[in-house]
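The freezer alarm interrupted the setup, so I double-checked each line after restarting. Inputs confirmed:
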Amino acid sequence: MSATRLEAWLCGAAALALVLLPLVAGRYPIYLAMQILILAVFALGFNLLFGYTGLLSFGQAGFFAVGAYVCALILLRVPSLLLGLVGGVAAAGVTALVLGALSVRHTRIYFSMLTLAFGMMLYSIALRWRDVTGGDDGLVGIPRAPLGPPGIPGPSLATIERYYYVVLVVALVAVVVMRRLVRSPLGLTLQGIRDSESRVAFTGVPVRVYRLAAFTIAGVYAGLAGALLPALENTVTPPIAHWSTSADPVLATLLGGIRAFWGPVLGAFLFFVIKDIIVRYTEYWLIWLGAIVVVLVLGFRGGVGAMLGTLLGRLTQPASGRAEGPR
Amino acid sequence: MRTSSRLVRLSLAALLVAGLVWAAPASAQCQLGVPGIKIGVQGVSSGSHADYGRQIMMGATMAIEEVNAKGGILGCKLEMKFMDDENKPAVGVKNARYLVTEWGAHFMYGTDSSGVAMALGPVLQELKRIHFFTHAATHRLTEELVAQKGIQEIVRVSVPVYQDAVTAALIFKDRPEIKRWATIGADYEYGYVTWNLFKETLKKYRPDAEFVAAAWAPFLTLDFSPHISAVMAQKPDAILATPWSGEAVMLLRQALIQGVFDQVQVWWQAMGGSVDVLEGIASEVQRDRFKGKLWATARGLHNWPDTPENKAFVERFQQRWGRLPNYSAETTYSAILITKAAVEKAQSLETKQVIEALRGMKIMTPAGERVFRNEDHQFVYTVPAGRVVWDAKYPIPVLGDLKVFQAKDYYRHPPFAPVAATK
Amino acid sequence: MTPDQLAYQGLVGLSLAMYLWLLSAGLTIIFGVLGVLNFAHGSLFMLGGYLAYTAYGLWGWPFWAAVALSLAGVGLVGLVMERGFLKRLYGVEEAYQLLLTFGFILILDDAVKIVWGGVFKIPPIPRFLDGAWPLFGRPFPVYNTFIIAVGVAVAAGLWLLFEKTWWGRMVRATASDREMAGAIGVRVPRVFAGVFVLGSMLAALGGALGTPVRVVAPGIGAAMIIQAFIITVIGGLGNLRGAFVGSLIVGVLSAYGTALFPVFELFLIYVIMAVVLLVRPQGLFGGHA
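Predicted 3D structure, all chains:
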């Protein structure tokens, strides 16, 4: 069996398992699965920027928060989840476009610092603009509004199982779209920019425009992930805009594998599972997470994804002969 | 031979019976049909406010040990799980979901943060579990979420901001020389409502009162020097301060070195009667650095009331943990006593029936008699305020010169006129 | 506010600035020489505070001895961080160095919880630093004056170190051209280690000197690192003079912000950071981008 066939089978199996989850699991695993899916979407967007374009942003949480807050504000006034999601994504996309236009003037450490500054600017707005964002106390009591557009009655999402399917469908669509993206000319150009900026520039490609495209898409994904949050948690508070939240997709991607397409998804799963396991035994889970980060960065920069990839490569060797390049 | 083998058989039989009797469970069977009653507890147990989560946990643990030793509730043993809510609403909600849907908690207790409490309220309706609030003080929890929005699953066992805000006004309204008030406030719900409620109450008695300055410090402020100097520039007669726990200790330390206690007449420290704050300022109090100007209150004092119940509670706590109990330990302890009384009356763990059993409850607890108020699910009890003094009987400062105001006299009651939760 | 009050508030801001200066000086030196932006620098500051608290508050050592222990201890931790871990990433993308130091934050934050517990700690103020003296018509704390003096002394000391000593010249050579310095005989790995240790000790000094008036608790390191980043960016990454001026700007601005424009204060600081990065990324004092 070729590697692509195996990949397709694994994806299919995983998708099926996710669809069947509510039938076999209790409410808490479903809740956990939604958090994983949200982080997976968040991290997928982040990795387009980091793994494929080579730009490390520490401010993605800002766009996540824009998506979450705008969706929450909409849900508190209009009982339409569809409107909330669309509104959140649109707001995050516009914010990413504007801030991205400024950020992509730089690369490397200056880029990272700039995104950090912008992310924290959004955090300070969330924290201080009490009239709109609720300040330190945030927005609470957000209803899990029905799905339909405003005015048209849609299916109720009151139970957590129903909302789970919304999140699952959104996440699957996001994955499929991203897959298309990275295989498209856009995706290949981004990787070229990451590997050798000057060479790509010589061919006449407007490097900055492509970087901006990647940044905006990453922001849209972050906003989408954020917009899924209010209906899940019923609360939106400033910490979701803080740089420590920006670290979540970074860690997930590092865990799963930075250069691999499935890295962020795998990493999101691992991140929650590892934390859940550690927390059962000790309250000191950060030290273990930190140790894992150190080990991965020093020795396994391909993350768990790379380890699995080598394994898969060995399993499928007779058919393909050579391990595939970056997918 | 036959007699001895009969003897052997008889003695073996006797041993067997004795063994069965000895091995049989000492307590009666659980009458509620569950393997045990699960108690979910939350509090902040990390960072500069970590002592409150610890005290909540210590109070709950001791209560559970005592209840279990006497046979549990209707024969059912209690089991506890404590989680850190990091003072963040999102974490508190996540923990609550985990405790109820995954761990199977029957009742929940705790939380220090008003922000967490306001976020939890609506979720409790979804989870259909009672949460006994043992620290979070915002009046909006009971006035809005219970009295107005009808969320029955909220029960508050501790005193609300009426304590911090109203008692200050009641004490200092009789000091005509104190006119100019300023606040160094916590930059979130708790700080705003305390200051607003204080101003509103004082204005009723002292129309001449002036509110000359306000400096707001967000959670996790490391240095209050600029707040102190900004406020002192307006030459206030008295200061009302709401940062709590480690921040209160830091604030008082930094105020001392700016000579604040030579300039103002009174410093009202909300929650200054809390054990961790008293421990932190012990040496300064011993040397009378605050010149008798530091006043404080808390949501329970270990040295009041002077009843046998309270004294016994404090003694048992000290023996068990080696420290004096903080108010959040007492409130959580009492919450579990209340749970026992309610479940025994309802003869059930069903949320609706337990809530019904709480109505009209009057119960004796270490902090005095607590009376349940049906309209807003607030347990009403009296806590005095006083001056922070050194008393050689205790290893840490205490509140002395106590002013006692009966809670039922000054607590707000329905219909509740809203108090702003903004600066 | 009257001019006197403004001046007083400014002085308070100056003392705030000095803690930030001690934190940022190390951060910027390390970046300037090693090219590493140490995310965990704030955690070293916090660790310095814990060590000083333990020696002075728990064991009863004299204040100076406690501070010295704090410097030595954190210097050692810094040495291990650099020689044991960071050096393996010098050839690799910077992003991984940032991630590694982020991992250190997680480890150090939990480690202090495990050793000292989660509750805040604060020792008494040393007697000779207690009290206040009249300034602009109000009492100004002796402690804050002391901090200002230390900050200025450190600035002078660092200037002397880098301008006038042989070691300082080696360091500057390494910072400006690593390969060339190696070629003329500078032991670059030793310089790296030495600079990292110096930077760590500066952070520890800030933390240690803060303990009698501020609490030390888990998480205060992560809370401060952002301010240090802002300062280093404003002043210019790797530029000591810039870090000093940047600290003054941030410290004094936050003091005035508290008194005069509290709502915008936080936002303003990030805006300044972003503006500097956009308009003059090498910072106010940096020579080249």
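Quick read of the result. Chain A has one domain: 3-240.
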